[in-house]
Structure formats: C-alpha cells, structure tokens
Amino acid sequence: MPRTKSSQRWIARHVKDEYVKRAQKEGFRSRAAYKLAEIDARDHLFRAGLTVVDLGAAPGGWSQYAVKRVGPGGRVLAVDILPMEPLQGVELIQGDFTEAAVLNLVLERLQGRGVDLVISDMAPNISGVAASDQARSVYLAELALEFAAKTLRPGATLLVKTFQGEGFDALRRQMRERFEKLATRKPKASRAESREIYLLARGFRGDRGCIESVAAS
C-alpha cells in the first residue's frame, strides 16, 4: 500500500528528530523517555527505593528510565494490554488494568504496599476525528486516575498525559479533589505542535483502606 503524503512527512520528521536519534544512541526504546526525564529533572519524581507503576508501558521507554532511577531497592511494575519485551528489573503485567483480574494481580504483586508513583503516557490511537480523539484521551487519563486512587499510598504522586481541549478542565477538577497539588507540564521533548500535556498531581489524599477493600473484593 503506497504511503500517504502525511505519513511520508511523519516518517521524514521522525528520522530527523533529535530525541529519536538520542534514544537510538542511548538505548531507550522510545523518545518518550526524555519527556519523563525532563519532568523528573524539574520536579524530582524519583528517588531510590520507590515503588512505581507504569500504565500503558509499551514499548517501555518510561519503564527503562524509571528502573534506573529507583535503583535495586525500588520496584517498577509495567502494565499494558500490548506485549512488551522484557526489561531487566521491570515486572511486566500484560492485560487491561481496568479489569478486576489484572488489578488484583497488581495488588498481589504489591503485597499490601501502597504505590509511591503512578505514571501514564497512554494516548488513544488517533482516528483523525478531533472530538472523538479528545474524548478518548481524557477517558484514558480518567482511567489512570481511578487506578491511582486504588493503589497509591497517602501523599503519593500521579503523572498522567492527556490533551488540551474539551474535558480537560473537568479532569483537572477531579484530580484536585484527590491530591493536594496539581501542576501542568509541557516538556521540550513533547513536540510543539502536539496538544499533549502532562498533569502532575502530588499529595494523594486517599488512604490504604481503598487498597485493602479492592484486594478483598
């Protein structure tokens, strides 16, 4: 099948992208690792010994970065519907984290310990219909928020990608209800023309009861 002009432009831009070149040189699976690195440099998300869950982790760029930052005393659980090649030090769980069986598997791995940081770089497959794509992006962020509410320890952090547009302000309100602080981040590694933006929520207001109740259900 012949490539469209738009796909040809994307390929040309991708090949020339400085972050793509860096990822290939430095062994990261995706250029997205540099978005996380920039946010971490500014906001100090990671430290040794943290327990981190990476939602929608494939192909693994964020998990690669996270496992280096938490060190051997930390844990990184990578969850995705898609298969992902193994990463040293990363625990892979293939499945839909919104399903009870997969959530319970995550909780079993945690063994009653609350998560310190949930990260999500999930994005919908773009259909080209702006309203539909926007709604799906916000929905994915809401799913990440619900997962975080069931797994984070009190005071913990959520970093989630979404897109600016309809539903964005409502999502921010939901996050403010559950966290002490909320900030927006647009790292340089995020393409300028992209509407993607990251919401960084700190100081989770929940308690361990939500973890125990899900595990018991």
TrEMBL record:
Location in or out of the cell: Cytoplasm
One term of GO molecular function: rRNA (uridine-2'-O-)-methyltransferase activity
Enzyme superclass (EC): transferase
Keyword check for Glycosyltransferase: no
Binding, S-adenosyl-L-methionine: 60, 62, 80, 96, 121
A Pfam family matched in the record: FtsJ
SUPFAM superfamilies listed in its UniProt record: S-adenosyl-L-methionine-dependent methyltransferases
GO cellular component, one term: cytoplasm
Chief location bin: cytoplasm
Enzyme Commission number(s) of this protein: 2.1.1.166
Domain Ribosomal RNA methyltransferase FtsJ: 28-204
InterPro entries attached to this UniProt entry: RNA_methyltr_RlmE (IPR050082), RNA_MeTrfase_FtsJ_dom (IPR002877), rRNA-MeTfrase_E (IPR015507), SAM-dependent_MTases_sf (IPR029063)
Coiled coil: none
Gene3D superfamilies in the record: Vaccinia Virus protein VP39
The entry's keywords: Cytoplasm, Methyltransferase, rRNA processing, S-adenosyl-L-methionine, Transferase
Active-site residue numbers: 161
Superkingdom of this protein's organism: Bacteria
Signal peptide (UniProt feature, chain positions): none
Family: Belongs to the class I-like SAM-binding methyltransferase superfamily. RNA methyltransferase RlmE family.
Function: Specifically methylates the uridine in position 2552 of 23S rRNA at the 2'-O position of the ribose in the fully assembled 50S ribosomal subunit.
Protein name: Ribosomal RNA large subunit methyltransferase E
Organism: Candidatus Muproteobacteria bacterium RBG_16_65_34
UniProt lineage: Bacteria, Pseudomonadati, Pseudomonadota, Candidatus Muproteobacteria
